[in-house]
Amino acid sequence: MSDAIGWELYRTFLAVLTEGSLSGAARALGITQPTAGRHISALEASFRQPLFIRSQTGLIPTEAALSLRRYAQDMRDTAAALARAATSRGREVTGTVRVSASEVIGVEVLPPTLARLGQSHPQLRIELVPTNQVQDLLQREADIAVRMTPPKQESLIARRVGEVELGLYAHAGYLRRRGIPSAPADLMGHALIGFDTQTPFLRAASKSLPEWTREGFTYRTDSDVAQLALIRAGCGIGWYQSALAGRSPQLVRVLPAQCQFRLETWVTMHENLRNSPRCKAVFDALALCLQQHTAA
Under a CB-based contact definition with an 8 Å cutoff, are residues 113 and 285 in contact? Predict the structure, then answer.
């Protein structure tokens, strides 16, 4: 096998894995389909084995290709980190910052702050990743992360910005139709909105609220944003951040004394980025934004 396999071959390989075809990979990378085909052929020749099986529906990855996926993804992430590090020098706030946050924080809380950052720093680029998965800052899956648990890795800069309060809420119209529960046991007679798969939050909620189980949910979705939309639409009762619920006058808190959670909120980034003007500007802006949000 050749020792000098260029990164562009692995990049095309990963794009074909993701898109399922040479044409899709070519569009995603901004190259021609013949070029994508040559990259895959060169990679197969170097490895002396096929990586994809041609079919009428596209390219089917072989076991060898699937075993290489993680390594190609690591190379992609490293290449992105190199690019970010190369543009982090200098005093001006310019370049790209990748921000990871939960779905609700990323969609409902951060956008106004990101808009102000863009106005103050026109050369700043933000990659927003709304996900409930913990992005690995050490592997540079993100530059800055908003987390609802204390960070455990020592090489991270972390700032605790407060606690997010969660309560059970429902639309006033739903409660007029179905009545207001007066005790946790009354929830069994209501349409509940929750997760489709087991999550740490669902396990924690079930300990103090036995009625809150997957089997008891009338509406199930693993998207926090979808859950909020279902609550606002009057589908049933679900968990909502109290600071956000205040934006919707029709939402009513249910069982406030018995049902509440508080989630510690942290803004974190890798310590190697502490001298990056762009990362520091974004870090400080997010910390201020979330301090105000948790205090609301």
Answer: yes
Residue 97 CA to residue 140 CA, distance in Å, equals 11
Q: What is the length of the chain?
A: 296
pLDDT tens track, the chain, 296 positions: 445 678 888 889 998 988 889 998 888 888 999 999 999 999 988 888 999 998 877 889 999 889 988 888 888 777 766 665 665 555 678 888 999 999 999 999 999 999 999 999 999 999 999 988 765 555 567 889 998 887 776 677 889 999 999 999 999 999 999 999 999 999 999 999 998 887 777 777 777 787 788 888 999 999 999 999 999 999 999 999 999 998 999 999 999 998 888 889 999 988 778 888 999 999 999 999 999 999 87
Whether 12 and 40 have beta carbons less than 8 Å apart is answered as: yes
Burial-class residue 260 by CB neighbours within 10 Å (0-12, 13-18, 19+): middle
Question: What is the amino acid identity at position 241?
Answer: Q
